[in-house]
């Protein structure tokens, strides 16, 4: 059996049922096909769909396991709000959660920053977060976004008090987290950190679902 | 020859030596290595949008022992080159550093939109172009072995031939006017070695060329 040809026919996202239909084979055969293709590196990803069905990403070329997931991939793996980019990013130096938060802020992209709020839950080293954000001149923005995420993201960890104080003393290049975007909903946090919050309460509802 | 692992090692080395961010596009064999279509390649083909960035990479490569070469005639359509690529040789492989133009081909907005993967080696960022664009670029470089690589791409991927046609139109309009002729020749060669090229694609590419020729004759 030429598995590459089979993978070419099935290129895209497939379930066992769709494979049955496309190749006109029985369920057991379709499952075997997935197994064989996975063994040969043609199954690039596997996830659960909404109804719990397995969704296979099949490509006609072998998956190369090199590098680590990029910023978008880290956010999508850790946040209920997903972000999409037309291409996949692979980095060759592992990106920590702390680094991902800082990088997301550096993009100044509204949706990316909104989605990255969930990453605060996974922070292990608050001091590293301070160091990185200070280096990127986004320290106070990190502090303000952390305060927002504490209000909306469940089971959020508490930030080290010393780090919070250190963050307050950092410099930022611009008060805007997203250029020229400011709302009236988080005045207290804005006052505390002296930066402008781009989100309103409705934007953050998704975290409460 | 350079294999995937070694290519990654070199890119990591380049990334570490760069003090500022450099972005480029991987085409040809390099892109094929990233997509797992090849085990090794003779040359690493990279396209830059900024001259300064290309020069930075050239400097880094010279530091690791590669030397500039003038062997531009390896490209079949070398007479059409406006901006020569920088060729650097050494350690049994070669780096071809292009600036916007790839022989008879221009780096178009469409190519940038269709990028499939982005690999980040610290400050060195490489975008891998789509299989359709690798195929088109193979017709532009047309070196020994390019036609076989193109055949492999057609066999492996579900090539969207509409993209090929659209890009051919763009190139004929904004790049070299004779690009469609090169592509037509290349598709014929591909057919000769048994690649599955849809008949109407060849016809449409020929039509683009004919239309352009009539247009030029009228002028």
Strand content of chain A: 5-15%
Radius of gyration of chain B: 17 Å
Say how many strands of chain A there are. 5
Summed up, the domain count of chain B is 1
Architecture of chain B in CATH?
Answer: 2-Layer Sandwich
Numbering strands along the chain, what is their spatial order in the largest sheet of chain A?
1-3-2
End-to-end separation of chain A in angstroms reads 47 Å
Share of residues in strands of chain B: 15-25%
Order of helices and strands of chain A: HEHHEEEHEHHHHHH
**Biggest interface, residues from each chain:** A-B, 20 and 25 residues
SS-based structural class of chain A?
Answer: mainly alpha
Structure annotation, total helices of chain A: 10
DSSP summary: helix tally of chain B: 9
What fraction, in percent, of the residue positions of chain B are helical? 40-55%
What is the share of helical residues of chain A?
40-55%
The largest β sheet of chain A comes out as: 3 strands, antiparallel
Number of strands of chain B: 11
Q: Give the strand order, joined by hyphens, for the main sheet of chain B.
A: 5-6-7-4-2-11-10
CATH topology name of chain B: Beta Polymerase, domain 2
Short account of what is shown:
With 209 residues, chain A is mainly alpha-helical.
What would you say this structure looks like, in words?
The complex is a heterodimer of chains A (209) and B (219). Chain A has 209 residues and is mainly α. Chain A has two domains: 56 residues, Arc Repressor Mutant, subunit A, CATH 1.10.10; 141 residues, no CATH class. Chain A contains ten helices and five strands; from the N terminus they run αβααβββαβαααααα. In chain A, the strands form two sheets. Chain A has a three-stranded antiparallel beta sheet with strand order 1-3-2. Chain A has a two-stranded antiparallel sheet with strand order 4-5. The longest helix of chain A is centred in the last third of the chain and has 14 residues. Chain A is elongated, with a radius of gyration of 21 Å. The model of chain A has no long low-confidence stretch (mean pLDDT 91). Chain B has 219 residues and is an alpha+beta fold. The model of chain B has no long low-confidence stretch (mean pLDDT 88). Chain B has one domain: Beta Polymerase, domain 2, CATH 3.30.460.40. Chain B starts with a strand and ends with a helix. In chain B, the strands form three sheets. In chain B, strands 5-6-7-4-2-11-10 form a seven-stranded mixed beta sheet. Chain B has a two-stranded antiparallel sheet with strand order 1-3. In chain B, strands 8-9 form a two-stranded antiparallel ribbon. Chains A and B meet through strand 5 of A and helix 1 and strand 10 of B.
